[in-house]
Amino acid sequence: MIELREVYYSYDHNITLKNISFKVREGEKVVLLGINGSGKSTLLKLLNALIFPTEGAYYYKGERVEEKSFKNKDFRRTFRREVALLFQNPEVMLFNPTVYDEMAFSLRQLGFREEETREKVEYWADKFGLSPLLKSPPFELSLGQKQRLALACLLVLSPKLLLLDEPTAHLDPKSTGWLVDLLWELPCTIITSTHNLSLAEELGDRLLVLGQDHTLIYDGRIEDFLRDEEKLLKAGLLHRHRYRDKGGYHTHGF
Amino acid sequence: MNKALFGLYLFFTVYVSSLRELNLLLLLFFVLFSVLFALKRRRLKGFFKGFLYTALFSLMLSLPYSLWSSSFDYSIMMLLRVLNLYMLTLMFISTVNLYSLLSFSKTLSFLLVISVSFTLAYRRVFENFQQALRSRSIEKPKRQELLNFLRRIMGYFFERALRDGQEVTMAMKSRGFDHD
Ligand SMILES: Nc1ncnc2c1ncn2[C@@H]1O[C@H](COP(=O)(O)OP(=O)(O)OP(=O)(O)O)[C@@H](O)[C@H]1O
Ligand SMILES: [Mg+2]
Q1: Is A91 in CB contact (< 8 Å) with chain B?
Q2: Contact, A222 vs A201, CB < 8 A?
Q3: Mind listing the pLDDT tens digit for each residue in A195-223?
Q4: Tens digit of pLDDT for each residue in B129-169?
Q5: ipTM here
Q6: Are the beta carbons of A16 and A36 closer than 8 angstroms?
Q7: Which of A58, A163, A231, B16 gets the highest tally of CB atoms within 10 A of its CB?
Q8: Mutation pick for ligand 1 pocket among A31, A41, A170 (CB with most ligand atoms within 8 Å)
Q9: Domains in chain A, please, with CATH?
Q10: Which helix (H) or strand (E) holds A205?
């Protein structure tokens, strides 16, 4: 469904993604793991075509995605409809006067009739526990509620490729569990970023790991990676410490 | 040579930040503006962007006080001060590497880092807002939608400026700074 070929990306002069190549097939649930600053958010924005590779190429369904592809109206429409990104900071996605308008935003743009819009919005609001809030302004919600709302806004469109940037960062354990279950129910391809090792296993079956050097240091099954202490250390996902551990070192995942 | 320039810069910085006279501030503004305009013709684009951001920040930080006390002199004075400082700093940075010069003073590096990271942080959030709108828009947004978007951004930055402003002030106080 998507393919990256030797992609590099730099902000000004700082290289943030280095020689990244991988393919994702339709329906896969992929977890993107990496420590702070490794370039997870940057990679997801690149996959959402908000930024474009400085070098290398990105293909979506066999078509090359470049800045000039977006001059083509049909391509832009299809791409924006099928590929959705949940931003790390959900607040930046919310700007409509009420929760209802927020969820109806894209549907109205697509020209759905108001009844259809209402039906879809109510269905997802109910699923996300947002029904009592439909009339409130989004900016008054708690951060966890904002995160759920932002995701609901994307799901009303039934995207084909869902990109989630730390979707559980602001959720309590109960909501996290609920979200994990929901993600497995969805029929779409999903790429979820996280720096949480224990959550990685629950969020997908294939793992991509961005190293501290901004290259892709692992691509494969999650279980194999979790058993490979050397790789874990290289990714900066394990830390050694002596605290509360008489004698020798003691390693820990996050 | 650098130290002498730095001394001059510091002197002017302190001078400008203690000025309360609107006429004088305005005069300085025009002088600095013309000098910069003459100097930086090649890179004016970045200059105006920074200029605009700085102006917006300053207004966001000072307007609440002005509204509260219903005197706009304060906002205008702060705006002119900040813009003058911005231009002074720009002139100075374009000739001297500020970071390396400041390595001898913890306080100054601290202040510099705060202000730089502050503006950087805001700039990134702003970029993120724009990207989110682009990401969610299947069609070109209509006017009403754009208006909602702009209203929200202003609201967001307003809240944040207030919150961060308070926090930075408290942090500075706890480190022994006092503001006038
Ligand atoms: N708009 C920007 N301009 C310049 N540099 C940026 C920008 N956004 C991110 N960076 C830099 O790129 C690097 C990677 O950032 P990114 O946000 O992709 O990391 P991340 O893996 O998502 O980290 P986190 O876990 O903290 O979210 C960081 O060093 C960051 O400072
Ligand atoms: Mg991130």
Answers
A1: yes
A2: yes
A3: 888 888 899 989 999 998 999 999 999 88
A4: 889 999 998 888 888 887 788 778 777 877 776 676 666 65
A5: 0.81
A6: no
A7: A163
A8: A41
A9: 2-253 (3.40.50.300)
A10: none
